[in-house]
């Protein structure tokens, strides 16, 4: 596909007033389902939809309407809808407590240093508890950033993050307090996910994740442009620009996937691998992939073609095949296929119920040694 610089107006299909900046300006604590009554009404009010909205949200896991999603929320745990945790013998474990769900969600607040918060989350877990399993799993998968990268401390200010707020509500509502190793066996997902995917994307950005991406782009004196290939709704690009306006972030997407919401209006419409090949392999740029698809070896093609020295990938970290690669993590693939790169950081992302996501940061070994 040839490069197409056509403008795609930010939009929410069926909305009478959607404007991304105004959305953020008006978003507050009362916008969340925690305060606005229910999930359906929260989405309708926040995005300016009609009360009888009947849009069909298509995703791999289901096709639902807002009414459908709310009905399933109202069902609660009936029929195993909240059965996220199994032991090694695939016997269901007790649900986490509301306090544990809140503690897990708080890990990702911009006011917390993620590494220190993880330590506290683990130290406050009772021996043998589900929370201890979760904390141990998160600790085992953490790759503390290699200098000069660092997990940020409390920022002076951070933009609002409506997706993080909605995700935090989902943790308590769906009785979820973080992933454990046996989540590779979790085969179901909740019906709110197609709605959230269409409005925001398949992964939730955090201040820690955005900061690491920004740091990678600013390792040297002159910041490098960030290219987000497969940008989808554009929410990650939008958040990067809001949080770090000094950076150049270029969203690229072939628009083959339909989303109800588009947060940005300057997406470069092009096939990702084609863009990389026709732009000197991405030399002098940072590659960002957010929940890349598994099919057609998309992720493999991107990582083989990319000639830059830094890649950031938001993807599953338990090899369940939901993103990047089937049967292995992106870290496994890079270790085998790109030995000239090293994993410079891995931090957990807010994982939806039954899932296990992280941000992986890879840098060429020569580049790391040069900076060091």
From TrEMBL:
InterPro entries: SAM-dependent_MTases_sf
Origin: domain of life: Eukaryota
PANTHER family: C3H1-TYPE DOMAIN-CONTAINING PROTEIN-RELATED (PTHR39290), S-ADENOSYL-L-METHIONINE-DEPENDENT METHYLTRANSFERASES SUPERFAMILY PROTEIN (PTHR39290:SF6)
Protein name per the record: Uncharacterized protein
Organism: Pseudovirgaria hyperparasitica
The organism's taxonomic lineage, starting at the top: Eukaryota, Fungi, Dikarya, Ascomycota, Pezizomycotina
